[in-house]
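Milestone 3.1: sequence recovery, worked example.
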């Protein structure tokens, strides 16, 4: 695999995911009743892991089958093919099959990934608190319920007799209890056995809290630390969370979105790979506190326990920058329309080369600025693009659209300004331009912006320069109407390096991505996993401790894409073949990794920063080999 092609490079973009009604709970219409010896399960619907209603009503003259399952139960997982066959055997006009996950600790994204991995062919909802399971009387996973069009439970229990006990398979299975009951119901025949004891894993029951959190004590502190950076007056959050009343009316939403780890925005899966600096994800303890508080009616508590109001810095956090660059004039953002990705060229007019140790961005209008990225252009290419397009700046979606010298990190809501370790710097040559890509999101009224970037020059000797490379899949081909397209890529490390950060990158069809390392001695190490990719929430993830990459180490990427009509982010309707490209309708698969050359010491006489040239030579070698292979394949075909 080649090193990163700077012309295709983009990262750390960020947009707005509105904290809204993304519920993953369960809607139950009424209590279970007993009627003529049969359970009458009046269940209107459940809410699926995508936040949409999953209807539990049976088709006319048909049936609903509800199966409670657990991703952590081996018996549940073993029944996935059986349930898929059942789904295939009956048309939707006769059978409504729904799976309900009872795992309380998993996010919606993790449940979705599990459903995809096991190729489940039916909608999946969840029962985090065990409410639906308790109402229907489910005790283990898997356990099935057959419900007729009158909302009566006609059968419940095991699926069949493949298992006689936990960890014990039946050597001679011959029973099909669920299918027999379903067939009898649909044929109008009596069901011989309305209940057969299920075999599986006990459904976890939520532990009743000993202490109910209050807003004045625990909740206000959680919100101050994790939410108010964006959710306060004049900031990017669509509403403020400065007071008890503001939090109380959104208590359920707050609990839901933090349980699903939609908020605070931090897409990296918890517990996967090394620790990252500035990890914004909530602890499980804080998540549980918000859920218990919401379920208890959002009590205010003793107001004397309230913490002082949070203070947010108005000035430069690193002190006065050595160089401040800003948009030359106000840029206008219309009240409505598509998101705007705009690149602005900011001349530095530096008389000599400098190294940058820290970068700080100051968005001019946080109500509409969703992210800012910075790049160094030392060839004037961005100026030409700016001159060729009317107005201030030029349009850019997936990066500046030029071959650039290096990056200057970026800004996203809540991001702490970056500062490199001692001895490490970013290169800013004399006379170079800084190109900033700003992502704007119209908010309903016309706005203007004039953002700034503050650059801090290194005050200590710089021994090594930070550069980015990547594992990427240039010959990307995503066929239409496919919802689970796996793409793999790998980049062989050409010299001994030290890794500092990673930044996964895909466009709108991306579903998930995992990055890992394979060392020359065969050892492996996970780096990052994003189970619920969202182009609007992209970050650079800085390792708490740098990782050494010996020559020959493989940086691996495994990603999945959804190019189906069911992907709400798909820009093409109907779906079409999608290949590599910069445009919104194109796609990318890149696992960026920030590195320095191990042992490099630019303070020594004659020492040069040759890492980019090493990456370039590696890329060119790869491209030559690719051309030669294609030519040989063509000769064979002829």
């Amino acid at each position: 695999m080649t090193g990163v092609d700077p012309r295709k490079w983009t990262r750390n973009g960020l947009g707005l995911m509105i904290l809204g009604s993304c519920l993953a709970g369960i809607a139950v219409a009424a209590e279970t009743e007993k009627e003529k010896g049969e359970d009458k399960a009046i269940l209107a619907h459940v809410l699926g892991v995508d936040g949409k209603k999953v209807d539990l009503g049976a088709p006319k003259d048909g049936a609903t089958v509800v199966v409670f399952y657990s991703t952590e139960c081996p018996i549940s997982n073993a029944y996935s093919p059986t349930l898929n066959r059942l789904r295939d055997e009956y048309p939707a006009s006769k059978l409504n099959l729904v799976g309900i996950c009872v795992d309380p600790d998993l996010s919606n994204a993790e449940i979705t990934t599990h459903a995809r991995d096991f190729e489940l062919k039916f909608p999946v909802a969840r029962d985090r608190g065990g409410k639906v399971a308790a109402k229907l009387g489910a005790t283990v996973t898997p356990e099935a319920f057959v419900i007729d069009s009158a909302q009566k439970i006609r059968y419940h229990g095991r699926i069949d007799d493949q298992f006689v006990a936990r960890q014990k398979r039946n050597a001679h299975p011959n029973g099909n209890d669920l299918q027999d009951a379903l067939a009898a119901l649909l044929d109008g025949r009596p069901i011989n056995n309305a209940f057969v004891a299920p075999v599986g894993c006990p459904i976890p029951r939520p532990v009743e809290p000993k202490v109910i959190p209050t807003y004045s004590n625990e909740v206000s502190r959680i919100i101050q630390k994790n939410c108010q950076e964006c959710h306060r007056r004049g900031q990017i959050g669509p509403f403020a969370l400065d007071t008890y009343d503001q939090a109380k009316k959104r208590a359920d939403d707050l609990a839901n979105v933090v349980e699903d780890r939609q908020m605070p925005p931090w897409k990296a899966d918890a517990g996967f790979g090394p620790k990252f600096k500035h990890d914004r994800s909530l602890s499980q303890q804080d998540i549980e506190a918000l859920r218990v508080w919401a379920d208890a009616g959002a009590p205010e508590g003793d107001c004397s326990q309230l913490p002082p109001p949070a203070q947010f810095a108005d000035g430069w956090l690193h002190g006065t920058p050595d160089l401040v660059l800003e948009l030359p004039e106000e840029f206008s953002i219309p009240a409505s329309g598509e998101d705007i990705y705009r690149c602005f060229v900011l001349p530095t007019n530096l008389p000599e080369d400098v190294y940058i140790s820290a970068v700080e961005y100051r968005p001019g209008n946080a109500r509409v600025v969703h992210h800012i990225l910075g790049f160094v252009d030392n060839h004037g290419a961005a100026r030409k693009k700016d001159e060729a397009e009317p107005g201030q700046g030029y349009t850019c979606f997936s990066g500046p659209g030029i071959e650039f010298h290096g990056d200057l990190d970026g800004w996203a809501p809540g991001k702490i300004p970056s500062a490199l370790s001692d001895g490490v710097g970013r290169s800013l040559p004399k006379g170079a331009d800084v190109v900033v890509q700003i992502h704007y999101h119209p908010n309903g009224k016309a706005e203007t912006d004039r953002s700034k970037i503050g650059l801090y020059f290194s005050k200590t000797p710089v021994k090594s320069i930070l550069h980015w490379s990547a594992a990427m899949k240039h010959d990307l081909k995503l066929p239409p109407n496919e919802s689970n397209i796996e793409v793999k890529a790998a980049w062989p490390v050409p010299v001994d390096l030290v890794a500092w950060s990673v930044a996964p990158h895909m466009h709108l069809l991306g579903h998930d991505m995992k990055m890992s390392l394979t060392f020359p001695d065969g050892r492996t190490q996970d780096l990052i996993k994003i189970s619920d990719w969202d182009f609007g929430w992209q970050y650079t993830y800085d390792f708490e401790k740098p990782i050494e990459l010996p020559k020959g180490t493989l940086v691996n990427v495994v990603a999945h894409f959804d190019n189906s009509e069911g992907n709400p982010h798909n820009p093409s309707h109907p779906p079409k073949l999608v290949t590599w490209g910069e445009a919104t309708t194109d796609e990318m698969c890149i696992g960026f990794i920030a590195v320095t050359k191990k042992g490099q010491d630019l303070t020594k006489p004659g020492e040069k920063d040759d890492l980019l040239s090493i990456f370039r030579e590696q890329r060119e070698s790869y491209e030559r080999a690719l051309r030669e292979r294609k030519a040989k394949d063509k000769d064979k075909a002829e």
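The first strand starts at residue 33 and ends at 35. The chain is about 20% helix and 30% strand.
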